[in-house]
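Re: weekly structure request thread

Next one in the queue (505 aa):
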Amino acid sequence: MSDRTPDPRTLEFWESKARDIVWPSGLVIDGDRSAPRDDATFEHTSPRDGRRLTAVPAGDTGDLDRAIGAARRAFDDGPWPTMPPRERKHLMLRWADLIEAHRDELALMISLEMGKPVEEAWSIELRAVLATYRWYAELADKELDESSPVGPDDFALITREPVGVVGVVTPWNFPLTLAGWKIAPALAVGCTVVHKPSDLASSSALRMAELALEAGIPPGALNVVPGRGSVLGKHLGMHQQVDALAFTGSTQVGRAYLEYSAKSNLKRTWLELGGKSGNIILPDAPDLETAISTAAWGIFFNAGQMCTAPSRLIVHRDVADEVIAGVVARAGQYSPGDPLDPATLMGPLASLARVEQVQGHVTRAIEDGAEALVGGAAESSNSDSSGAYFPPTVFAGVSPDSRLAQEEVFGPVLAIVTVNDEDEAVRVANNSDYGLAAGLWTSDVSKVHRLSRRLKAGTVWVNCYEEGDLTVPFGGYKLSGNGRDKSRHALEKYTELKTTFVHLT
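Done, posted below.
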């Protein structure tokens, strides 16, 4: 759960900074800020109020080829992969220091671009970004090679080498955190990177790359090319000079990247995809009030736009009435508001198109017989009717097999399923094509071990939710993807194991 620290800065403070913000105007390729080949841009409006933010430079496949070529040269002939690891560490730490110096600016860009409350962008997302780059920077010179005891007449080395050029494709919901989970370990081991950010969060990614150049990251080591995902994403996935690709996004697009890999050079393709996480509350939860408040926070944080969101609340019938009443009562605390107001707990969705999609899920849930206890229809903010606001929505009486219980909504919509015992709770939780995360609330330590082993999810939070640390891996089972972000295990995605076997003569 968030350790949100109140920000003493006011709405007026952030509005003033917003008026003065300078948006990036060029692609970042081979150490330079350059316009797209045909000077193409796309207009970006804020989900806060529908106002125009900037004209984002839109690269095409030719621009992407330039970026991949720069990354290829930087890997094959440049200093980055051959640089002593301690020097890579120092440059990445210098970059992190610049990120911290520009923390207000980056948090504001995120908030204006995709609607995250600026206080949470500053205190949660940027905190995670800084921790990620610093952690992997420190790890850069601490990974050791191995030798194998093959006998007295032979000597064998097992070394890790950077895989090469890494394509990174990221979404808008945590635009800098999710990018950092991929870019930081790739750079730390000596790979070079081409980043295709989401159209809804390109400016903050470009600004991060500009700061990398200021920090002294060599030309071509990090390149950022925004543009149409359907065009650039496919081109990146099909490109013969890209050695590995890391993607966070929908399962549908993840499937396409596997096809692109098969049709091109069999590049390693790492996927962090969707989720429909089950959050189980049993009668012996150690603190039912905390379980209730966390269940509400978990689904409404970031307006429910999280792959790990506990969107299925699976509650034992003995405490169902109390839990449901508590979640509904707390939903009112998350009434959507201006993301630049530090008091706002939930801002708008990322776009008006997202509002339509979430509304479609809600309408189908009602058609399927679920009971909307609160919310259920798009609304305007108090200040402006053109923002992408959607209210906290809670459904009870949800069938485990219904569309609401099976489909990822990616919005502030909670489906509550009541169960009779812990075995049914586990069956309901596992009744999903996804397997990214799960929650479990119980004070019985034996039950913790027994049930967590049965839950088919990459992360199981016990008596908490959304807690974590960079030392632990993150990723999913089933249609939630493959590979792991975070921890030392992430380095496996960006390195090759080489055996050197020497016969001693």
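The two ends are 61 Å apart (CA to CA). The chain has two domains: 11-273, 278-478.
Next request, please.
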